[in-house]
Amino acid sequence: MARTSRQDTPDQARQDQGRSRRKTAEAAQQNRTARQHLRLEAQVYTEEADCFRCGTPVDQNIEGTTHPWGPVVAHPRPLWAGGNPLDRANTRLAHRRCKTAYCEQLRAAQAAGTRAVN
Ligand SMILES: [Zn+2]
């Protein structure tokens, strides 16, 4: 196997630098978005008490990530349908089971719609 030594020309070095700067900027943007998202979720938990689907109170003391009546933040217009995750109006409190049922309903409706078009 031939040994090739990679020579860093000034151009390559500049390119590498540019890449890592871009990466850093992307990561910073992702961090910002994540922070905004967390803040929005905290706001939802503070401001809302009822499930946006069934209208009954959500027990925010239920911990963990599996309890069907546990609290979750849901997006009435899902992200896959173009919903904005950072829009307060599109960020609502829900029961986990209600969110799951809602998402399944939407996906089924979308699948049906797609079939109808084809
Ligand atoms: Zn509910």
Would you kindly provide a written description of the structure presented here, covering whatever features stand out?
The chain has one domain (19-117). It has 2 helices and 2 strands; from the N terminus they run αββα. The model has no long low-confidence stretch (mean pLDDT 88). 51% of the residues lie in helices and 7% in strands. With 118 residues, the protein is mostly helical. Bound molecules: zinc ion. Zinc ion is lined by residues 51, 53-54, 56, 94-95, 98.
SSE map:
Blueprint: H1 10-47, E1 71-74, E2 92-95, H2 96-117
Antiparallel strand pairs: 1-2
Biggest sheet statistics? 2 strands, antiparallel
User: Residue-averaged pLDDT, rounded?
Assistant: 88
* Number of β-strand runs: 2
Bound ligands: zinc ion
Sum up the overall morphology in one term.
Answer: elongated
At a glance:
The protein is mainly α. It has helices at residues 10-47, 96-117; strands spanning 71-74, 92-95.
Offer a few descriptive terms:
single chain, 118 residues, mainly alpha, 2 helices, 2 strands, 51% helix, binds zinc ion
